[in-house]
């Protein structure tokens, strides 16, 4: 297209041209007033002379029109996968590109918007803004959104859009959709073991009248524990028992309704991290010795441990005439500790303790029962365990996994991790244990035993057992068959990892999930599912994962460390996964437990109607138009952009300059001829 532009490029300063023009105007007024002959020709000559000094120029511009940009924003969020919405979307987008492409002067920018990683919902307007941020406002012909209408970033006013163009919405889904859902109103993120937690939920069903009852099932870690009849539309409260440390996954599922859109939001999930508030440990030292302080320091350094420590300074059989009031700081409360309150302790440690009549035989029966019912005992043995007063000769011996031979090895050796110990979480990666010999100091005493149960994780001289870890019914037992861990703590010959070893033993005894030797865990890593199988076995575990679509798939596993197998499923679907090896199972939830995207799934034009109306656009439900998009028309920037059965896109007035041709009107022969003609006429007139 060609445009003609007229402008002035003065040869003299404007003030000088203006002065000359003013002078000629005065002369002209005088001549006209006196009515002198030839006045008209004189005025014309003067005017042409002044006009010539302004140097008028005529330019011809060759311009190329720029196309209008049309943003087609496609909603690919999770709710678009319901029913026929995805197919409606694909059909509408194909028709849009075809029909807009048939219009001259329009360019399509297609933008796809999925689920937000931060669970902020469907952000179509944020994606629209990014897609056209390099487009001048006068080139934007409009925006067409293909969505189910569940948009979470709709602006409150059209001014915030930053452009003056219509926003149209093509709504997928059906007119009479219905859905029932369950919503967690309050759920704990963290919990303390043994303390009941409260969960508040609500069932929403627009078709049921207030006061209607629906069945809700409660599952904890995949196990159904209760059912409840919930009142629709009202907050319901459940007191949740917390029975183990680690992760607890709670599911609340409302029974499905006939004809509802989806059952994906019929389940609400709470992922709770459970910790122990206090670990109560009873440490009984049979006599003062160099290693006693080491045990105390390790336990007191753990903020989660409440330590009760007794040291027997003088056994009852010793008689030396010392007054009774000087024998001890406090009486040993044997009945209170080992009969009345024994079940309040998470762990009992006997440190170089031997049977001397301080504890009646009956109390050892209580301790054995305490272990079988889920308690834990640690025997830190010294020469006492090989003597005739050994704890093995009490009723406690029936559950101890290592029987003393009566011999004590007094020779230097280095503790070594056994083949089994390299797979056990307690000893697997002890600092310094991967070299041969290990890079830690020597010990000089080992209690000889015959292991009858459990796992030997550390060995001493000649491969003799040093650390034995065993299960007894619901409880656990650990035996450290030397009393010289204090050499590591004191830095003898460079020391060793006494803190890591003793702390892991203590926490394994108290059932910390991270130290289980046989465990299956699953967790989310973004949109990936991570599966870990800890085992002391040598065979590759066979793991399957069942996703929210109830389809099972194998998990490829590889040995990440000795005894630790790890697998990964990338781009896992959002929802709850159950992994199993046939014996154990674990749950993991991919994505947030209560995603914004599925809180409302009924398609609606109501959210986009205000902004469409404010910008001059239209909202059309595709299903009401037989799945076809409305007619698309190109309109001027001042015309209406929507009507019955059609939507409009505004043409752009923007152009790009291709070339310029200049024609100075008073330059060259044409200007000279014009001036000469006027002055010649004036001379001729005067000659008469």
Automatic annotation (TrEMBL):
Q: Where is this region: Disordered?
A: 536-556
What is the organism field in this record? Rhodopseudomonas julia
User: According to the entry, what is the taxonomic lineage of the organism?
Assistant: Bacteria, Pseudomonadati, Pseudomonadota, Alphaproteobacteria, Hyphomicrobiales
Q: Which UniProt keywords apply?
A: Membrane, Transmembrane, Transmembrane helix
**What is the protein name for this chain?**
Glutamine amidotransferase domain-containing protein
Write out the transmembrane intervals: 12-33, 40-58, 665-684
Instruction: Give the superkingdom in one word.
Output: Bacteria
